[in-house]
Specification:
The complex is a heterodimer of chains A (601) and B (566). Chain A has 601 residues and is α/β, with parallel strands linked by helices. Chain A is built from 22 helices and 21 strands. The two termini of chain B are 38 Å apart. Helix content of chain B is 31%, strand content 18%. Classes of the chains: A alpha/beta (601), B alpha+beta (566).
Chain lengths: 601, 566
């Protein structure tokens, strides 16, 4: 932010530049005092006696090295007005200042600030304004950062007729103090007539701020204690126990889909990932299914079986070590080998029926549909070990630091009067709470990566297929990579299933995301999906491709990916005026150039 | 009007209006934006002129925020229906629209019209179109223009009802904005290509400084609170004829907490006009306000402040200049109450009319109480109209004896026969407030019925169950529910807390006075209990509660709005 209107004429400006150039600090301080004297004589701004400051009116000259971030949280606009006023005053003093709403501020960078001024109001029952809520939760919550070396002060606005006068400002002030921040000027609480006290606070704050310029406090921050130097390396074979920092259902309460946003801590793990990578999560099977299988087979739950090299009870094996919620072709084959079941043989020979059966059936179905006198040891031999589940990572380390976010759609359905639950997703949804730990590892995916430069990108995703694009956008935003981007997102209903809606809105506003098209299949009579939106925009989509755009496709393989691929061929054929065969070649070529990458499942 | 405008010193809305190209704004673009259920910030101001308010469900605000979903935006649509008279067909159409596009309920407002709540952005156009198909519109139901014109509601009480409702319609039509924006945006009428820039001969390109409200009463009934209107007309009947109207100016109730320069004000009677002059007088009062109202500060912009700033005399002098003639001196009149008289009445037209109490003005089905269904079925059989009153109630009007019996039967079938309700409840008004009104600090419609029950218990202890006392509650000080004119007024400060005001008059001619600040339910009941006991023991014959608390110095009478304090 710069001084809004420079009131000097050209001659004055050039004289000023000449004068200022090469001034040393002492000369500058003197001049500053001189000007303040002149200003006072002109009846200008009064500098109040700054309680508790030892520094007299020693403000730095223009081009100060002081950085100041002014943050505001407001409902009615008063705090914003005051923040902007402070911004003007500071920039008049040559301070490098930025004024941001708490909504626009990436609070995860708070610990990197030198100086922070916060102007925030309090509402209703002592609540923070909407836009300050996340910040407030962050600094008063368990994930609050250490703020050694951060100077701050708070201006709290409120209304004395309410019980919790200025509560939010007060609590932020105390929180920052407790986190190690240096309260450079005492917080001031203002009633509805805030003009005078706020003016006092601003002047005191700026005076004290100027005093911080020299000497630079030794940045002696205790070295980040990574206990024991190089820690152990975590991997799929040695998963890291990650603490759940946040778990929130992000589909609206009226949605028939259950999608969770989960944030996990990687702190101290040394684990690193890039946008496009996946997170592997180890899980356990639904208890009900284990019980049902034991009951159906009549196995003694405590009977010992061998799983790999370990001996354990069959119950333990079914709960934690063997895949029972999903059927695979391999399992069916082994099952058939052991049972010689004629019906099953028939199924294995019929591709279409087999596909159908593999989808949405579990091991209990298999046991029921193709009965056999199993004993526990034999059954264990045909079952495969339960693999970790992979989820596209929905965050960028550049933005969230040592955290990893995933977006989990919970699998639940009913068949044959039995409720079925996805092993990992339902476990996460039903049994894992914030602060608990789950075993994870990073699964690199080098074939789903942002272009290194700021090339155009078109991102197509339905449902949780949108997850990696959140990571892409965070990455570009944090790295300051400029490049056009276009998201095609589809789900069921606008009001409840627009995953990460407010984040996309913010990205659009900040022009990190250039365009977005959305398809909500159930908001109107006829079903509308992402492929329809692609076709609606086909001229421009083709233009982007012709201009080097990278195309990404993520989400459901069975339906969406197939339909999108078909739409894409149509578009290239129509817009390129070429044959189907040539269009296929065009797509192949895109893939060869790594300009068409998919992550479908 | 000079185009050399210093925007810096004017309120932001002034620029928005000016830039809106006669109320078009960017509404068409906002409606087409698929990323949000909201319209743009600027359009939320412009849409009001089209009778549409953006709102959101505040009950799930926090939850949605955490879900990274935008607030659950929806829209309130308010009809314009001068005098509040609806045909059965129109009632059925509104009933259907409320099910199809809104939250399934109908809200009867304090300005004799309907509101639909919970209409999603993508359904706005269809809703307005279907209203239009039934000869209903929403033009100027909100915004800085003349809003829905109210009139005396009950045909059974006065043979002049038909005449005043016609007058209300004529005034409304005369003061309608002339822009084609509404028809283009909502009804897909094409912009006439070669037309010159259209002009609002009356309003100009910035419309009024603030909203403007007009109401007409026929004494002794003050059912549309004539003194709460920017411009009120009091019909004067002589020799069985309306010979003209007293003119009251500068009523208005909205205030803001923490801004002592805002206050409610009752209208000042400045003279009398003939029926032939009434439209001209309405127009000229609007014009004086257009040219003299405060456009810098919206909280000082209503006509009431213009008049207090100019002084009544100077205002009248200015009005006389605009009119080119002087108003005659005011004539005598007596107003007895601002509430409704409930029950069946056989009117001078020999037809039956039922004034029916609708709690909070909310028409819905809830359990055994199936008011919405009952009124739907009634609409299918009646041969008269349904008229909404300014007290959020309704009148099923103009029925033959045969139909009257059918209506009674239907009310019974659906569990909504007019109950023997208390005098307090009959005279209760609550605004919408939470969860949809963005202005609300506290509950009103969802809470007042419970509070009334608790006050009834106290009243019954003193055998005052039948005593008619006007009680009104709003969730904020903006005054939709006209709380400042109630004998017991409650204005929300924060969830669960209200300011308690006492001493309004039963006929709506006197403002009430702050009695206790920021108290909860227990506080309200504890404050009222001894006063009600005192009232029961020491009231004078026929004395109303509001008059009693003034006479006994519970509160001091507010003689002029500017002395009002929160």
């Amino acid at each position: 932010m710069s001084l809004k209107a420079n009131p000097l004429n050209d001659a004055q400006l050039s004289a000023l530049s000449q004068l200022v150039e090469g001034l040393n600090k002492e000369q500058t301080v003197w001049l500053n005092g001189y000007f303040e004297g002149r200003l006072a004589a002109l009846g200008g701004v009064e500098v109040p006696a700054a309680a508790g400051t030892t520094v007299s009116a020693a403000a730095p000259a223009p081009q100060s090295s002081i950085n100041l971030t002014i943050l505001y949280g407001t409902e009615t606009g008063h705090s914003q007005g005051l923040a902007e006023k402070l911004g003007e005053k500071a920039s008049f003093k040559g301070i490098n200042v930025q004024v941001l709403s708490l909504y626009d501020y990436n609070y995860k960078k708070l610990h990197e600030e030198d100086n922070v001024a916060i102007v925030v109001s309090t509402h209703g029952e002592g609540d923070p304004p909407d836009m300050a809520e996340d910040f407030y939760k962050y600094v008063t919550g368990p994930r609050a950062p250490q703020l050694e070396g951060v100077n701050y002060s708070v201006l709290a606005l409120g209304d004395k007729t309410y019980k919790h006068f200025c509560k939010t400002g007060e609590e932020i002030d105390v929180a920052l103090k407790n986190l190690g921040g240096y309260r450079i000027t005492p917080a001031v609480k203002c009633d509805v007539d805030y003009e005078q006290p706020s003016e006092m606070w601003m002047n005191n704050f700026l005076l004290n701020l100027s005093a911080t310029e020299t000497p630079e406090p030794a940045a002696a921050g205790g070295s980040t204690a990574t206990a024991g130097g190089i820690g152990e390396e975590f991997s799929k074979s040695n998963p890291y126990m990650a603490t759940v920092l946040e778990k929130v259902r992000i589909t609206g309460s009226d949605s028939d889909k259950e999608v969770y946003h989960v944030e996990l801590s990687l702190e101290g793990s040394g684990l690193e990932y890039e946008p496009g990578d996946s997170l592997g999560i180890f899980t356990k099977n639904p208890e009900a299914l284990v019980e049902d299988i034991l009951a159906f087979t009549g196995f003694d739950p405590e009977q010992k079986v061998d799983v790999g090299e370990d001996e354990m009870s069959i119950k333990e094996a079914l709960s934690h070590h063997l895949e029972i919620t999903i059927l695979t072709f391999d399992l069916l084959n082994k099952y058939q080998e052991k049972t010689k079941n004629a019906e099953l043989a028939k199924l294995l020979a019929d591709d279409e029926a087999l596909d159908e059966y593999l989808y949405g059936h579990d091991v209990l179905d298999l046991l029921e549909d193709y009965p056999f006198e199993w004993n526990a040891r034999k059954l264990v031999e045909v079952l495969r070990p339960i693999p970790p589940r992979l989820y596209s990572i929905s965050s960028s380390m550049e933005s969230v630091g040592e955290e990893v976010h995933v977006t989990v759609s919970v699998v639940r359905y009913e068949r044959k009067n039995r409720k079925r639950n996805g092993a990992c997703s339902s476990h996460l949804a039903d049994s894992i709470e914030i602060d608990e730990q789950i075993p994870i590892y990073i699964d690199k995916n080098p074939s789903f990566k942002l272009p290194a430069n700021g090339s155009k990108i078109i991102m197509v995703g339905a449902g949780t297929g949108v997850a990696p694009y959140r990571a892409f956008m965070q990455h570009r935003e944090s790295m300051g990579i400029k490049g056009e981007s276009w998201l095609f997102f589809g789900d069921r209903r606008f009001s409840s299933d627009f995953l990460y809606q407010t984040e996309w809105q913010k990205l659009l506003k900040n022009e990190i995301l250039t365009k977005i098209d959305v398809a909500f299949s159930r908001d109107q009579e006829e079903k509308v999906y992402v492929q329809h939106k692609l076709k609606e925009q086909q001229k421009e989509v083709f233009d982007w491709l012709e201009n080097g755009a990278h195309l990404y496709l993520c989400g459901d393989m069975k339906y969406m990916a197939k339909d999108v691929n078909k739409a894409l061929l149509d578009i290239i054929q129509t817009q390129g005026g070429i044959s189907e065969e040539q269009a296929e070649k065009y797509v192949k070529n895109l893939k060869r150039e790594k300009r068409f990458q998919t992550d479908v499942y | 009007m000079s185009e050399n405008i210093n925007w810096q010193e004017l309120s932001e809305v002034e620029k928005l209006k000016y830039d809106s190209n006669y109320l078009r704004g960017t509404l068409t673009e906002s409606l087409a934006d698929p990323i949000t259920g909201a319209i743009s910030d600027g359009d939320t101001q412009i849409s009001k002129f089209h009778g549409i308010y953006q709102q959101w469900d505040r009950d799930i605000d926090k939850e949605r925020k955490r879900q990274k979903l935008e607030p659950a935006f929806s829209f309130l649509i308010r009809l314009r229906m001068p005098g509040g008279r609806f045909t059965p067909g129109q009632w059925l159409a509104m009933d259907e629209l409320s099910e199809k596009y809104a939250n399934g309920t109908l809200k009867l407002t304090t300005r004799q019209t309907f509101q639909l709540h919970g209409v999603l952005k993508r359904n706005l156009k269809a809703t307005i179109k279907e209203m239009n198909d039934h000869l209903m519109d929403t033009i100027a139901a909100c915004g800085d223009v003349n809003r829905n014109v109210m009139s005396h509601a009950n045909p059974a009480q006065s043979s002049f009802h038909a005449e005043v409702i016609e007058t209300a319609k004529n005034i409304s039509e005369h003061l309608l904005p002339k822009t084609g924006a509404y028809h283009e945006i909502w009804l897909d009428k094409k912009l006439v290509a070669d037309s010159k820039e259209e002009v609002e001969p009356l309003y100009g390109n910035r419309y009024l400084p603030r909203k403007f409200k007009i109401g007409i009463v026929i004494p002794p009934h003050n059912d549309c609170d004539v003194f709460s209107q920017d411009l009120g007309f009091i019909a004067i009947v002589e020799n069985d004829k309306i010979v003209g109207y007293n003119v009251a100016v500068g009523g208005g109730l909205g205030t803001t907490f923490g801004k002592p320069e805002t206050y409610p004000r009752t209208g000042t009677v400045i003279g009398f006009c003939t029926p032939g002059q009434i439209i001209d007088v309405a127009e000229k009062v609007v014009l004086v306000q257009r040219d003299n109202g405060n456009r810098k500060d919206r909280k000082q912009a209503r006509l009431k402040y213009t008049i207090d700033r100019m002084g009544v005399e100077e205002f009248v002098a200015e009005l006389t200049k605009y009119l080119g003639y002087e108003l005659e001196p005011e004539r005598e009149y007596v107003l007895d109450r601002n509430g409704d008289d409930f029950g069946w009445i056989k009117g001078s037209d020999k037809k039956w009319h039922l004034t029916y109490f609708v709690e909070g003005g909310r028409v819905l089905d809830r359990g055994e109480y199936k008011l919405k269904t009952a009124l739907r079925e009634i609409s299918k059989v009646i041969d008269g109209d349904i008229i909404l009153t300014g007290n959020q109630n309704l009148i099923i009007s103009g029925m033959s004896t045969k139909v009257k019996n059918q209506v009674d039967a239907l009310l019974k079938t659906y569990g909504v026969s007019p109950e023997d309700i208390s005098g307090l409840r009959k005279n209760s008004i609550a605004c919408v407030a939470l969860p949809t009104c963005p202005l609300a600090f506290a509950e009103a419609e969802r809470y007042l019925p419970d509070l009334v029950s608790k006050i009834e218990t106290i009243l019954n202890e003193h055998e005052l169950g039948k005593e008619e006392i006007v009680i009104r509650m709003t969730g904020c000080p903006n005054g939709c529910g006209r709380p400042y004119l109630a004998e017991i007024g409650l204005i929300g400060k924060s969830p669960g807390y209200y300011n308690l005001y006492l001493g309004g008059s039963f006929n709506g001619s006197r403002l009430n006075t702050l009695y206790k600040q920021t108290i909860n339910e227990e506080g309200i009941l504890n404050e009222l209990r001894p006063i009600i006991a005192d009232f029961a023991a020491n009231r004078e014959d026929g004395e109303h509660f509001g008059d009693f608390v003034i006479r006994n110095n519970y509160v001091e009478e507010i003689k002029e709005g500017k002395y009002f304090k929160h």
